[in-house]
Structures are given as C-alpha cells and as structure tokens.
Amino acid sequence: MPKETFETLLATGSKAYTTNNHAVAIKAFQEAFQIAQTPKRRMQALDMHIAPMTKLKDLDRAMTIAKDMIRLNRTSPQGYLRAGQIDRLRKQPEAAAKWYRQGLKHVSSHDSEYRQLEAGLTKSNDLEISLRVRSCPRDPFTTFPVEVAEIILQYLTYRDMSGALRVSKGWNNFLCKSKLMTTTLDFSGGEQGRRTEVTLVALKAALRRLTQYPKIARMNHLSITATADLNNRLPHWFRRDTLETFTLDSTIPDSTLSILLTSTALQELKILSDNGLALGLVLTHCRALKRLTLITSPKAARNASWINGLYIDHPELQSLHYHNRDPETFFSIGRITSPNLKHLSLRRVGSSDLKLDQLLNLRSVAFDDCAISGHITLPVSLQHLLFGAAKYIIRTLTTKLPNLVSLAMYDNARGHAPTEMFLDPKPFLESVDISSDLVNDHSAIRLAALPRLRKVAISDNSKITGVFVKTLLEQTQGQIERIELQRCTNVGTDTAEWARQMHKGTVVN
C-alpha cells in the first residue's frame, strides 16, 4: 500500500471532520504534521488539528497545539487567533485579549489577517464587559430618571419614535412631549430602495402631534394627496416664520416660494423649483441661511438663461449645492465671495473665471458637467475636489493644494491633464479617483510619491496595463489599501490574482 501524501491526509481529515468523525480527523492531521517538510505545511496541519479538538471540547489539548503554532512562527497570526478563540470558548476573555494583543505586537499590520486580530480583541473586551455586568432589560420610561430617558431619545430618529408610540401608553405619553415630536416633521428616513410613500393619513397623524408650528420639516416621499395638502399649509407655516429647516423633494409652487423669501429664521433649505430666479432670490432675501440645496428644472434654467453671472456674497452661507437639470443650458454664475462657505457643489453651471482662492474656509468643491472657459483658482484650505463629466474648457487650474485629501476627476477635463495635479506636493492626499485616458503606466510613479495615498480608482482607461498596478504597489511598499480598476481594457485578469499573492494587505478589484 503506497504511503499517503501530505495533501491526501489533509483531505482525509477534512472529509472526516465534515462528517463529524473527529477521531479520524485528528489522527489524519497528526500524521500530516509528522510528514510535513516545511514550516508552512506544519502550521497548516496544526491549524486544522485544532478544529476537531474544539468540537470534542478538548480545549486544553487544543490550546497546547495553538501554543505550538505560535512557537513555530511568531509572526503568523494563525496561532494567536486560535489561542484567543479557545480562551473565548473557555469564557476567559482577559486571557483571550492577551493573545490578541501579542498577535498585534508581532504580526505585520499589512498582513491580511491583522484586522481579524483587532476584531478578536474587540470581541474579547465586549465579552468581558457582558460577563461582569449583568444585563437587566427594563422600560427606560418607567424605571430610569427622566434625564436618562431623554438621553436615550437623542439616539432615536423621527421614524423610530413614531413607531415607538405604539409600544405602550407610557411610551406614548412620554414621546408625545418630546421636542422631536412636537416641533418636527421628518419624512426623510427610509433605506435606499425601501422608501415607502407617506400617505395623507400619516401626514395628518404627524401634524396632530405638533404643539406649535414646526421648526424642522423634511417633507420627502409624500403621496400626491399628501403633497397637495402640504402645499395648502406651507404659506401659513412660512408666514409664522418658525421654520429653521425645510426640505421638499417635489416642486415648490412659485406662490409659496415668494412667501418663503420673507423668512428670517430659515437656516437650512432644500427645494426643487421651476423658477429660474430662485437661486438669486433665496440668497438675496434669506439672510440667515447656512445650508442651501436648490435643484432647478429644465424650464427654470431656460427662464434664467438671460442672467449674466449671478454674484453670490451671502455672509452666513456655509454649504451651497446648486444642480441645474437642463441638459442643454448652463446657469451662469459670476463671483462667489461668501466668506463662511465650506462646501460648494455645482452642476451644469457656466462661468468665465471662477476665483475661489479667497474663500479660506472652503473644504470641498464639486463641479459636475460644468463649462468654465477661463481660470479656476482654488484655496489652499481645500480638502476634497471633484470634477465630473466632459464639459470643461479649462485654461488654468490652480494645482497648489497642499491640504487635499481626496481627488476625483471624471471624463477628461479637457485642456487639463489630471496627472498635473500631482506636480506639487500633496502630503495629505489619501484617495484618487480618475476616469481618463490621460493616466498611463508612468503615472504610477507620481502617485507612489504621495505619502498618505490609500485608495486609487481608475476607470474608462485604455492606456494603463498591469505594469501600473505592479509599479504602484512596489513603489509604495504596501501603503495602498485598495486599487479599483473598471473598464480598463488593457489590464489583464491575472493582475488582481498577482496582487493578492504578492501584496496580501491590498485589495485589487
């Protein structure tokens, strides 16, 4: 009878383990360990040996094997993971945590299983707390002081609280007195793809819980009848001037918009409008506004096409998102000098020169499908920059952005190569997302010079090959955590497999 090989013994043991024949599995793994010729194979046999031991509740012998694994290779995470797992099964979380800490000390942070050690340490700490502190479920609104119950309420959304009203009379009485229920209407919740329509009945039930005119109203996903009812109420709400936050995902009537402009309390506004003058009117009249998101229809954009460069100088504005939905017209914007502006997002906007370098509080800028025929100057404070779609005619773009953290450029900003963005030092840049043929294999050298780069995404590219990935990973020495390549026609399917084998700490898709 021929002598069994290492592979056949492992296969025999695995098959016996899956059929709960643990004695046969243990014997097969022991024999595999005895004939193993390399440390890697010995580790594999010992690792598989522990599994049937734990099934038989022989945790002492299993721990002995785990310690043998650690002695065999102190830089491998497998022994520490097994030892920690065994001590957790023994309900000894403190001992388990010590194994995980030793593993984190000796195992490279670039190892693919390093995060499992971190997760094991977290689970051990949680288990220790659960064993020390006996859980005793109680109704917080009948047991705890009112102050504690109010702290708990801060972690509930409007949607959660609306559902909790049906728990008991005690909950109903307490929740109905909460400010979140008496001054707020919030229908913005719901997971993506699972948003249910807010009916007229649900809207009126929420309105009955109000003790005064609302301060916060996020009116999204309303049915046709609920929207009609809301449109009748909005003029009264705006005349009362109590609203501080207002969101509406259906088109606001012009008659209501004209009353909204009289508001002095409004700080956050998100609306859709058919009025081409809406952006200028809101910024001119609502002087307390801090956050504005305005989406205009094709009809609105055509009505406003005669405007020659809107001047934005709102003193309190911190966030401006303006999206023009007309596929044929660009909304014209001139100077932007709002001193407190932190976030700027523009879609289908046209401008000759866009000078933003004096906005020293600006942190993020997004230009999507915009037409800029002159110079763009950006402030050194900028951390996040996005250029989307191929409507740019950029002559000059300020590239000295030392504080930039993330950069995204899609569909070739014409007249400006994305790789030029890396000519100046960018010590904090962590994420690069480029859709462009202007990136080639040589671009990897420039990217590798970024000391904090963690994520690189390249799409719609026919120039780069597997050399780009190889150069980037070798030059950065495991610094990159993720490389995403989509529709890169000259990158072979074997590139990701090579990266997984040679650089286990990096995910390549």
UniProtKB/TrEMBL annotation:
SUPFAM superfamilies: F-box domain (SSF81383), RNI-like (SSF52047), TPR-like (SSF48452). It comes from the Eukaryota. InterPro entries: F-box-like_dom_sf, LRR_dom_sf, TPR-like_helical_dom_sf. Signal peptide: none annotated. Transmembrane segments: none annotated. This is Uncharacterized protein. It comes from Cyphellophora attinorum. The lineage of its organism: Eukaryota, Fungi, Dikarya, Ascomycota, Pezizomycotina.
